[in-house]
Amino acid sequence: MTDELRETDDIAMIEQTLETPLTERLEAILLIVDEPIGLVALAAAVGSPVPAVRQALETLVDDYDGRGAGPRRGFELREVGGGWRMYVRDDHDDLIAEFIGGQAPARLSQAALETLAVIAYKQPVTRGQVASIRAVNVDSVVRTLLARGLITEMFADSETGAINYGTTDQLLQNLGINSLDELPPISPLLDDGADGFDEGISS
Known about the structure:
Blueprint: H1 3-19, H2 22-30, H3 39-46, H4 50-64, E1 75-80, E2 83-88, H5 93-99, H6 110-122, E3 125-126, H7 127-134, H8 139-147, E4 151-156, E5 163-167, H9 169-175
Antiparallel strand pairs: 1-2, 3-5, 4-5
Protein backbone atom coordinates (compact mmCIF):
# COMPACT_ATOMS: atom_id res chain seq x y z
CA MET A 1 0.00 0.00 0.00
CA THR A 2 1.40 3.39 -0.99
CA ASP A 3 1.73 6.28 1.41
CA GLU A 4 -0.99 8.16 -0.48
CA LEU A 5 -3.45 5.26 -0.18
CA ARG A 6 -2.63 4.81 3.48
CA GLU A 7 -3.17 8.51 4.14
CA THR A 8 -6.49 8.36 2.26
CA ASP A 9 -7.64 5.42 4.41
CA ASP A 10 -6.62 7.25 7.59
CA ILE A 11 -8.57 10.32 6.57
CA ALA A 12 -11.62 8.20 5.71
CA MET A 13 -11.44 6.50 9.11
CA ILE A 14 -11.23 9.85 10.92
CA GLU A 15 -14.17 11.20 8.93
CA GLN A 16 -16.22 8.09 9.68
CA THR A 17 -15.42 8.43 13.40
CA LEU A 18 -16.47 12.05 13.39
CA GLU A 19 -19.73 11.18 11.63
CA THR A 20 -20.63 8.46 14.13
CA PRO A 21 -22.43 9.88 17.18
CA LEU A 22 -20.35 9.85 20.35
CA THR A 23 -23.05 7.95 22.24
CA GLU A 24 -22.93 5.13 19.67
CA ARG A 25 -19.17 4.83 19.95
CA LEU A 26 -19.40 4.73 23.72
CA GLU A 27 -22.07 2.03 23.58
CA ALA A 28 -19.85 -0.07 21.34
CA ILE A 29 -17.05 0.04 23.91
CA LEU A 30 -19.31 -0.40 26.94
CA LEU A 31 -20.93 -3.49 25.43
CA ILE A 32 -17.65 -5.40 25.29
CA VAL A 33 -15.94 -4.45 28.58
CA ASP A 34 -16.19 -6.98 31.39
CA GLU A 35 -15.21 -4.54 34.12
CA PRO A 36 -15.82 -0.81 34.70
CA ILE A 37 -13.76 1.41 32.41
CA GLY A 38 -12.59 4.83 33.54
CA LEU A 39 -13.65 8.12 31.99
CA VAL A 40 -10.18 8.94 30.65
CA ALA A 41 -9.80 5.47 29.12
CA LEU A 42 -13.21 5.81 27.48
CA ALA A 43 -12.31 9.22 26.09
CA ALA A 44 -9.11 7.81 24.61
CA ALA A 45 -10.96 4.82 23.15
CA VAL A 46 -13.51 6.95 21.29
CA GLY A 47 -11.14 9.83 20.49
CA SER A 48 -13.17 12.55 22.20
CA PRO A 49 -12.54 15.08 25.00
CA VAL A 50 -13.29 13.96 28.54
CA PRO A 51 -16.02 16.61 29.15
CA ALA A 52 -17.85 15.54 25.99
CA VAL A 53 -17.63 11.89 27.02
CA ARG A 54 -18.94 12.70 30.50
CA GLN A 55 -21.92 14.52 29.00
CA ALA A 56 -22.58 11.68 26.55
CA LEU A 57 -22.52 9.13 29.39
CA GLU A 58 -25.06 11.18 31.32
CA THR A 59 -27.22 11.25 28.19
CA LEU A 60 -27.03 7.47 27.94
CA VAL A 61 -27.92 7.09 31.63
CA ASP A 62 -31.02 9.24 31.13
CA ASP A 63 -31.90 7.36 27.95
CA TYR A 64 -31.63 3.92 29.56
CA ASP A 65 -33.57 5.10 32.62
CA GLY A 66 -36.45 6.24 30.42
CA ARG A 67 -35.90 9.95 30.89
CA GLY A 68 -35.21 10.42 27.18
CA ALA A 69 -37.46 9.87 24.19
CA GLY A 70 -37.58 6.09 24.56
CA PRO A 71 -38.77 3.62 27.22
CA ARG A 72 -36.84 2.48 30.29
CA ARG A 73 -34.43 -0.32 29.38
CA GLY A 74 -33.81 -3.65 31.08
CA PHE A 75 -30.22 -2.59 31.62
CA GLU A 76 -28.60 0.48 33.10
CA LEU A 77 -25.31 2.35 32.89
CA ARG A 78 -23.66 2.84 36.26
CA GLU A 79 -20.47 4.48 37.51
CA VAL A 80 -18.97 1.87 39.81
CA GLY A 81 -15.50 1.37 41.23
CA GLY A 82 -14.16 4.46 39.48
CA GLY A 83 -15.39 3.40 36.03
CA TRP A 84 -18.45 2.91 33.84
CA ARG A 85 -20.17 -0.33 32.90
CA MET A 86 -23.57 -1.62 31.81
CA TYR A 87 -25.52 -3.79 34.25
CA VAL A 88 -28.78 -5.70 34.15
CA ARG A 89 -31.29 -3.91 36.36
CA ASP A 90 -31.82 -5.39 39.82
CA ASP A 91 -35.50 -5.83 38.95
CA HIS A 92 -34.54 -8.68 36.62
CA ASP A 93 -32.24 -10.66 38.93
CA ASP A 94 -34.77 -13.49 39.28
CA LEU A 95 -35.33 -13.63 35.54
CA ILE A 96 -31.61 -13.80 34.81
CA ALA A 97 -31.03 -16.43 37.51
CA GLU A 98 -33.78 -18.58 35.98
CA PHE A 99 -32.42 -18.06 32.46
CA ILE A 100 -28.94 -19.27 33.36
CA GLY A 101 -30.31 -22.38 35.01
CA GLY A 102 -31.48 -21.19 38.38
CA GLN A 103 -27.97 -21.49 39.75
CA ALA A 104 -27.39 -18.53 42.03
CA PRO A 105 -23.75 -17.56 42.64
CA ALA A 106 -22.17 -19.20 45.67
CA ARG A 107 -22.91 -17.00 48.64
CA LEU A 108 -20.42 -16.05 51.31
CA SER A 109 -20.90 -17.65 54.70
CA GLN A 110 -21.90 -15.55 57.70
CA ALA A 111 -18.34 -15.88 59.01
CA ALA A 112 -16.94 -14.62 55.71
CA LEU A 113 -19.36 -11.68 55.62
CA GLU A 114 -18.45 -10.68 59.18
CA THR A 115 -14.73 -10.93 58.43
CA LEU A 116 -15.15 -8.94 55.22
CA ALA A 117 -17.02 -6.23 57.12
CA VAL A 118 -14.24 -5.93 59.70
CA ILE A 119 -11.60 -5.65 56.96
CA ALA A 120 -13.67 -3.11 55.00
CA TYR A 121 -14.13 -0.81 58.00
CA LYS A 122 -10.73 -1.29 59.69
CA GLN A 123 -8.35 -1.60 56.73
CA PRO A 124 -5.45 -1.86 56.63
CA VAL A 125 -5.79 -4.64 59.20
CA THR A 126 -3.93 -7.87 59.99
CA ARG A 127 -5.42 -11.32 60.39
CA GLY A 128 -4.52 -11.19 64.07
CA GLN A 129 -6.46 -7.97 64.53
CA VAL A 130 -9.48 -9.39 62.69
CA ALA A 131 -9.32 -12.59 64.79
CA SER A 132 -9.15 -10.50 67.97
CA ILE A 133 -12.19 -8.48 66.96
CA ARG A 134 -14.21 -11.55 65.95
CA ALA A 135 -12.80 -13.75 68.76
CA VAL A 136 -12.33 -16.66 66.33
CA ASN A 137 -9.63 -17.96 64.00
CA VAL A 138 -10.09 -16.34 60.59
CA ASP A 139 -7.29 -17.95 58.58
CA SER A 140 -9.54 -20.07 56.34
CA VAL A 141 -12.04 -17.24 55.87
CA VAL A 142 -9.30 -14.82 54.85
CA ARG A 143 -8.05 -17.37 52.30
CA THR A 144 -11.59 -17.63 50.91
CA LEU A 145 -11.93 -13.85 50.60
CA LEU A 146 -8.53 -13.66 48.89
CA ALA A 147 -9.54 -16.40 46.45
CA ARG A 148 -12.77 -14.55 45.65
CA GLY A 149 -10.78 -11.39 44.91
CA LEU A 150 -12.68 -9.39 47.53
CA ILE A 151 -9.61 -8.55 49.65
CA THR A 152 -5.92 -8.20 48.90
CA GLU A 153 -2.58 -8.13 50.70
CA MET A 154 -1.63 -4.47 51.03
CA PHE A 155 1.73 -4.55 52.83
CA ALA A 156 3.71 -6.30 55.56
CA ASP A 157 4.21 -4.64 58.94
CA SER A 158 7.84 -3.45 59.16
CA GLU A 159 8.21 -4.66 62.74
CA THR A 160 6.16 -7.85 62.97
CA GLY A 161 6.04 -8.91 59.33
CA ALA A 162 2.27 -9.38 59.67
CA ILE A 163 0.37 -8.95 56.40
CA ASN A 164 -2.14 -6.11 56.34
CA TYR A 165 -5.28 -6.65 54.29
CA GLY A 166 -7.67 -4.33 52.52
CA THR A 167 -10.62 -4.58 50.15
CA THR A 168 -10.43 -4.55 46.35
CA ASP A 169 -12.16 -2.71 43.51
CA GLN A 170 -14.06 -5.94 42.85
CA LEU A 171 -15.81 -5.56 46.19
CA LEU A 172 -16.82 -2.01 45.24
CA GLN A 173 -18.18 -3.34 41.95
CA ASN A 174 -20.13 -6.09 43.69
CA LEU A 175 -21.60 -3.59 46.16
CA GLY A 176 -22.34 -1.09 43.39
CA ILE A 177 -20.46 1.78 45.02
CA ASN A 178 -17.59 4.02 43.97
CA SER A 179 -15.62 4.16 47.21
CA LEU A 180 -15.56 2.91 50.78
CA ASP A 181 -16.84 6.33 51.85
CA GLU A 182 -20.24 5.16 50.59
CA LEU A 183 -20.40 2.31 53.11
CA PRO A 184 -23.07 2.88 55.77
CA PRO A 185 -21.75 4.35 59.06
CA ILE A 186 -20.78 1.62 61.51
CA SER A 187 -21.91 3.53 64.62
CA PRO A 188 -25.63 2.66 64.38
CA LEU A 189 -24.69 -1.02 64.21
CA LEU A 190 -22.77 -0.98 67.50
CA ASP A 191 -23.81 -0.14 71.06
CA ASP A 192 -21.61 2.93 71.32
CA GLY A 193 -20.04 3.09 67.90
CA ALA A 194 -16.71 1.71 69.08
CA ASP A 195 -17.10 -1.60 70.91
CA GLY A 196 -15.22 -4.40 69.24
CA PHE A 197 -13.29 -2.22 66.84
CA ASP A 198 -10.80 -0.46 69.06
CA GLU A 199 -10.31 -2.92 71.88
CA GLY A 200 -7.89 -5.80 72.03
CA ILE A 201 -6.55 -5.49 68.49
CA SER A 202 -3.10 -7.00 68.34
CA SER A 203 -1.20 -8.31 65.35
